[in-house]
Amino acid sequence: MAPAAKEVSMADARYMVVVGIDFSDLANHAVDSALELTGLRNGELHVVYVEPERALEVALNGALGSDVDPALLLEKVRVRAGERLAEVKKRFPNFPPIRVVAHFRRGSPAREVAQLAADLDADLVVVGSQGRSGAQRLLLGSVAEHISRLARCPVWIIRPKDHDKATRVPEIEPPCHDCVERRFVTQGKELWCARHAEHHVRAHGFRYVTDGLYDASTTPYESTPQ
Q1: Is the dihedral of CA 113, 101, 73, 128 positive or negative?
Q2: Partner of 64 at 20 to 30 A CA spacing, among 36, 39, 89, 121?
Q3: CA distances from 148 to 143, 154, 179, 225 (A)
Q4: Which secondary-structure segment (H or E) carries 213?
Q5: 147-to-31, 55, 139, 143 alpha-carbon distances in Å
Q6: How do residues 42-54 score in pLDDT, each as one tens digit?
Q7: 109 inside domain
Q8: Same-domain pairing of 188 and 135
Q9: Torsional class of 141: left (φ above 0), alpha (ψ -120 to 50), beta (otherwise)
Q10: In-domain check, residue 37
Q11: What CA–CA distance (Å, rounded) separates 99 from 46?
Q12: Is the separation of the CB atoms in 126 and 26 below 8 Å?
C-alpha cells in the first residue's frame, strides 16, 4: 500500500521532524513537544499513525484485511494534528507558521516510523514511551526503543515525569523534598538543601551562566549543569 499524506498547514521547511502517535494522552504530549521544537527551528512536522499488521491474518490470507478505511484514519491523524497545533498556538500566541503533514501507514510501527523518517531525510524523530520495565517490557516490547535502534537520525523519547513513582529505575533516587522546598523558597537562587550542599562524595553543585560569564557567587567545587 502506498503511503498516504494530507497537509494541515503550509510554510517553508527548514528542519524536518517526524512524530509517531497512537492517539493516547502521551502521544498528545509528544506532538506538543515536537510542535514546540519545530516552531523554534522554523521547520516542518510530519505526524504519523501506523496501524499494526495482524501477523496471523497476513499469514493465512496473504494480505491485510482491515475493515478500517485508510482515508478515515488519515483524516483522524490530520484532525488530531490540527487540534494539537491549535492548543500550542493558544499557549504561544506568537507561534510561527509551520508546515504540518499527517501520514497513515500499515505495518510494524517502529519500522514504519523509522522508514518515514528515512524517506523524508528527517532531522529528528519524536515518540512517546510509557517507560515500562521488567515483565511489561518483555511482554509488550518498546516501540520507542525499537525506533531508536532503527532510525538513522536522533530520536527524542517523550515519557511521563514520574521521579516519585515506584516504577522508576531503582538506582535513580526521587528528588529530595528539602531541596525542592529550598528552590521554591529562594526562587531558584539556591538549588540544594544544606545537607546536599555539603562537601562530600555526592555533594551537588551548580553555577549560573549569564551572557557567557559565571556568576561571582560560585565556589571551586561547583560544576556547570549540562
Answers
A1: positive
A2: 121
A3: 9, 8, 34, 25
A4: strand 213-214
A5: 16, 20, 17, 6
A6: 999 999 999 987 6
A7: yes
A8: no
A9: left
A10: yes
A11: 8
A12: no
Segments forming the whole domain that contains residue 42 = 4-158
Handedness of CA 83, 81, 123, 20 (dihedral sign): positive
Residue 190 corresponds to which amino acid? E
Separation between Cα atoms, residue 93 and residue 29, nearest integer Å:
19
Q: Indicate the number of domains in the chain.
A: 2
Element (H, E) at 12: none
Nearest in space to 52 (alpha carbons), one of 109, 131, 128: 109
Domain annotation covers residue 165: no
C-alpha cell belonging to residue 13: 521547511
Q: pTM higher than 0.70, yes or no?
A: no
Q: Are residues 150 and 216 part of one domain? A: no
Q: CA dist 7 to 47, 104, 129, 131, 133, Å?
A: 10, 12, 26, 31, 37
* Cβ–Cβ < 8 Å for 2, 104: no
Digit-coded pLDDT (tens) for 29-80: 999 999 999 999 999 999 999 998 765 444 445 554 556 788 999 999 999 9
pLDDT at residue 219 in the model: 41
Taking the CA atoms of the chain, what radius of gyration do you get in angstroms? 22
Residues 117 and 100: beta-carbon distance below 8 Å: no
Tell me the residue type at 2: A
In angstroms, the CA 218 to CA 224 distance is 10
Percent of the chain with pLDDT over 90: 43
